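Researcher: We plan to redesign the surface later, but first we want a full-length starting point. Tokens attached.
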């Protein structure tokens, strides 16, 4: 049986228009790609070192910031560790549920909740510190000792120079 012209057209659609091909981008030339990879590595190394203690890098940062400044409120804490307030609230909730952190109403403003480590939180923070330091050493280990301070200086320049582009700008300086 002979196909109609409509049936032939349906079974043989016209060739798709070729899209112009964009130039290849080598990921290895992109600083953002390397920064993302280094973040993955930094988290992995921290978790390897601190695994038995059950603390994430963000939880450690919150514990350390509160230890550095007892009575800190959550909004200020968010700026100190460069996280948005809703993320900080979740981290504080989890640490409070583990009895590592306490919230108290401020004496001057009952709406403000001030944070303090519990004795258990301080003990855990102190236990995690050597693991955190080992992770930091492992991150920098591929660099010659003479270049490590310069690398950290350049990282600070990049972070401070781009801080306002962050969804959760941190305190700089």
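Model: Full-length starting sequence:
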């Amino acid at each position: 049986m002979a196909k109609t012209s409509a049936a032939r057209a349906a079974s043989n659609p016209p060739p798709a228009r070729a899209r112009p091909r964009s130039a290849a981008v080598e990921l290895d030339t992109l600083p953002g790609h390397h920064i993302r990879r280094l973040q993955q590595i930094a988290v992995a190394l921290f978790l390897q070192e601190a695994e038995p203690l059950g603390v994430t890098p963000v939880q450690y940062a919150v514990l350390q910031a509160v230890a550095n400044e007892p009575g800190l409120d959550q909004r200020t804490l968010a700026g100190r560790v460069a996280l948005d307030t809703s993320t900080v609230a979740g981290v504080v909730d989890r640490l409070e549920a583990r009895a590592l952190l306490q919230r108290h109403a401020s004496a001057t403003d009952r709406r403000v909740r001030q944070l303090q480590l519990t004795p258990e939180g301080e003990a855990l923070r102190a236990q995690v510190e050597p693991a955190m330091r080992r992770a930091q050493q492992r991150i920098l280990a591929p660099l010659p000792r003479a270049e490590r301070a310069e690398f950290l200086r350049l990282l600070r320049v990049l972070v401070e120079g781009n801080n306002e582009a962050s969804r959760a700008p941190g305190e700089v300086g």
